[in-house]
Amino acid sequence: MLKTFLINLDRRPDRLMFVKQQLENLGIDFERVSAVDGSCLTDEQRAVFNQQRFALECKRKVVDGEIGCALSHQAVWQRMVAENISYALILEDDVQLKPELASLLADSRNYESFDFLNLTLKRPFYDIDTTAVNLFVTQQQFIRPRFWQLYKRRSWRLMESKAIVRWKIFRLHVLSNDLTACECDIAPSLACCYIVSLQGAKNMLLASKTLFYPIDKVWQYSGGQLKEAFLAEPLAFQSLDSDIPHRVRFKLTLVQRFKRFFVKGRHWQRLFDVVRMYGWTRL
């Protein structure tokens, strides 16, 4: 069975029991990872974030809970590297799981094609036209048409354009239990339930040495031609109130807006990798 890590704060045994019961019902063994508590951080831990750059990038201050969350995920990736764990399922303790998760994990072919497979979506911010996905699967069209295939391209983009955050879907993968994984760029920025490869863990550790964005965006900045995907029908949902309060956006000053134009993250490394992986004709 896939190695499973559950990130949980010591002061939240209620959340531990919430997810533990679900995992036991699904027959999934897990290891609890003590989360880094944002309420008692050291100066060294806070230094993981470039706070000024974060303010320009996100139009708000980074909060201590975000720092603790980032350090907790990094700790799991470091465990994977240290113990040479090929793949791992990583969960946060506010996740609601669907029964189909057990069958997905039971067959390694469902996830070994990817370096990062996000099992959750947050609608309507992240959304996808599942009717269009099912249509392409039925038609055995699994690869994004090239730019000169105008009619096919227009139809394919219907599947992509429902999301507030725009992504490109490059391949469809039919998994067990009629689940479909969408190999994509960008992968959804949610970190409550995902599967990551050893190579993905290494590259995300490298990309997160100094953060100027929340940890659940690190796969957008990770190099190394990582294959990223999400499920058209998610198997996990964030179901509880966040333990990271006070994320309040503010209006940038004129000077800050000027600086933001030059320093805002462009995902250049990821873009170059995507071109190498799929070819510029499929962008």
UniProtKB/TrEMBL annotation:
In its UniProt record, a GO molecular function of this protein is:
transferase activity
> Keyword Transferase on this protein?
yes
Is Cell inner membrane tagged as a keyword?
Answer: no
Keywords for this protein: Lipopolysaccharide biosynthesis, Transferase
- Record protein name field: Glycosyl transferase, family 25
All copies of the Glycosyl transferase family domain together span 1-219
Source organism, top-level taxon: Bacteria
Q: What Pfam families does the record tag this protein with?
A: Glyco_transf_25 (PF01755)
